[in-house]
Amino acid sequence: MHWLCLLSLCIVAVHGQKIPWQPGTxxxxxxxxxxxxxxxxxxxxxxxxxxxxxxxxQSLNGLWECDPNVTPFDLPPFNVTxxxxxxVPFPVESALSGIxxxxxxQTIMYRKVLxxxxxxxxxxxxxxxxxxxxxTTVWINGAYVGYHTGGYDRFSFDITQYxxxxxxxxxxxxxxxxxxxxPQPCGKQDSSTYYxxxxxxxxxxxxxxxxxxxxxxxxxxxxxDIYNIPDLDNKQLVTTVYTSGAPVNxxxxxxxxxxxxxxxxxxxxxxASIDVPIPxxxxxxxxxxxxxLYSIVATLVVQGxxxxxxxxxxGMRKIEIVKDSLGIPRAHLNGQPFFQVGTLDxxxxxxxxxTAPTDEALSFDLVAHKLMGFNLVRKHVKVEPERWYYWxxxxxxxxxxDMPSGNWMRTVPSSDSYKANFxxxxxxxxxxxxxxxxxxxxxxxFNEGWGQPAAPDNxxxxxxNLVQSxxxxxxxxxxxxxxxxxxxxxxxxxxxxxxxxxxxxxxHNRHAVLGEFGGILLVPNGQWAPGKCHxxxxxxxxxxxxxxxxxxxxxxxxxxxxxxxxxxxxxQITDVExxxxxxxxxxxxxxxxxxxxxxxxxxxxxxxxxxxxxRAEEAKRSKxxxxx
Length: 628
Known about the structure:
This protein is α/β, with parallel strands linked by helices. Helix content is 19%, strand content 29%. The protein has 7 helices and 32 strands.
């Protein structure tokens, strides 16, 4: 199929015609695929924790021209129509892109012509890319604008000086993505498994895969970022409002609101932390059961004049490791023992690969977690669009965010180029906009040794200590699974299929977690590659699936009592290609009644809560006896 597609592209290119867009057909398609509209593609503002008024921005999602057959050395074809149409921001390999092929030379060229006027002299225009995989070069109207590497972090260019004073504006984007063959984090992408049977790696994502958009900002000085830290101990928000070009006499006013009513306000300086006390009567905690969110309005003022305003939000919560009465390290959320029960969430889609078809689809897996009684999602070696974390904030789910790994088979983790790329993209993750989301309670730096330098290279210790040095309101895990270095907040075990527990590290206050277990295989009605499903333990029907899951849930509660397990992550929330061990199929249909999974999870959490209460009461009685 693929060589025929390539042949047709070459023929069309020769004749100078453009192939009209239409979605491809993957082995499975989700029910949201029919809602994908080139005129209204993923239209929501992509930055829920940092946005201006609705008139200042414009989405560039939709149809672009595309050529997936260029080489990394080809120059951009200015003022030349490209041979195909692609639906941005779906990756070129996906069905929803309309291209549905591997780039011939790991390179894609995009072109978009806009009929827009440049901003007025009091404004500047920024071009934003939320994520492009991997090396991106941008030209505007024939002029080179900039270059960026990284597959999971946003980047922006000020394009004001490159815009024509009238008429059309031409944007050209060239992307080179070596996927699993390159020296960069790529998670579970693997071009060798593209639309075919694979193992635990899946079809790759290349090129633009998150929203592209433009916005106008004030010309001389504007708010460029915000960093919100909840400080529960001192009942305050600590926020820093970053600015571009702010003069020394500029100030920032930060207001905290509930239902559009200001409950706290503080004035401070740009680019410096500002403490905003929260009145006790208005102090509400963010938890999975009560995911309360405060609104923020931050205003930049210069000589008494408001020059820029942005909107954000935060949740008041605190995560920490505290020893219980037996000296066992336990996670505490807002001062209370907090056992986390969750799933492994890989974030792949049969029709969009890395990109969910719609915002409703993006939130669906999180809603499913809530319906099934989970309080945790382990986002596995992938970083999602920021709106995914917004939905986790709103719904009330804590997130362990994995750093995308190098390919487990091909990456040479000891190479200097890989370590440099890994560190660059890691710091972009933990210092980027996702740090504002209360749902993220943990960064996980490595998984099962994939792309992880082995001894005697102490790279793991260096990067773990680096992240811990400035990340004070989240946990930091050095590695999930084996190749564990004894640093960070977790002692993490992977154990298939039945649950088990490592021993907690009492000496270093590291709690015991089961980072992966389970993998019940129930063959779904629709399959990615018929007859190629795999998992860890097979059942014949939904009833057997629920029975097996319930048994394991009961064992989790026992392991929490002894030796002190403190979190469990079930593999997995959905099937992914030929991995058929999800609680949902790859096209997002429940394999079992979610209420029955909920009953098992709720029962486990109730048993663990009762255990903690009993031990606390026993410790209190013992203390009273000793005093007397």
